[in-house]
Amino acid sequence: MIVFGYILMGLFCLIMLYVIVVQFLVSEAIKNRFAIPRSSKKQPFDVQIFFWVVRELKMLAKFLNLNYFEVNILVYYILVPLSWCFLLDWYLEIHYFTVGFVLLWICVLFIYRDFARLSKRMYKKSVGFLLLFNRFGSNYLLSSVVICVGIPLVVYGVLVNLVLF
Q1: From the CB of residue 90, how many other CB atoms can be counted at a distance below 10 Å?
Q2: What is the pLDDT of residue 35?
Q3: Which of 14, 61, 131, 156 is the most exposed place for a label (fewest CB within 10 A)?
Q4: How far is CA 48 from the centre of its chain?
Q5: pTM (whole model) above 0.90
């Protein structure tokens, strides 16, 4: 079981590395082809991460023929928590969280029926939540990176550590 976990994590890391390398090569090719001038002032790391994630979500939306709101909700409200439920179920050797989460989303989608409208509404609520952190000296970009990238990575680290060890 532990060997399977290591193999799974290794495959995940290889896929992520592949995606990052391909994305870098594509972005460099686009910069060179369209002669986009490079800024002499380097952007902060949080701004770079924010715009990289937005670009990837837009590419995914185009690939899936969805809009940005739908892909954002699909990733951050369905796929990421579903993967957390799966890892937690794997650790606890039960399937309650994953099955419960899937049933919850089936009920939500049955009640609302229009995923595009639901996702736009949920996205606006998410933006409002992230803007609340402006009161504490943050900004939308930094709050997005911390809450939508940093915290999920920490949760993945904890869950994968629990599953593998």
Answers
A1: 20
A2: 45
A3: 14
A4: 15
A5: no
pLDDT given for residue 152 in this prediction: 92
Closest CA to 115 of 67, 154, 83, 80: 67
pLDDT digits (tens, 9 = 90+) for 56-67: 999 999 999 999
Q: Please check whether residue 2 lies inside any domain of the structure.
A: no
CA gap 144, 133 in Å, rounded = 10
Residue 47 inside a domain? The answer is yes
Measure the CA–CA gap between 16 and 120, rounded to whole angstroms.
Answer: 28
Judge whether residue 118 has pLDDT over 90.
yes
The larger pLDDT score, comparing residue 52 to residue 25, is at: 52
- Count CB neighbours of 96 within 10 A: 11
Within 34-150, residue ranges assigned H as helices are: 45-64, 68-73, 80-92, 96-112, 115-131, 140-145
Domain range for residue 143? 39-164
The total number of structural domains that make up the chain: 1
Distance CA 57, CA 64 (A): 10
Alpha carbon 6 to chain centroid distance? 22
CA distances from 15 to 19, 88, 144 (A): 6, 22, 24
In a domain, 80, yes or no: yes
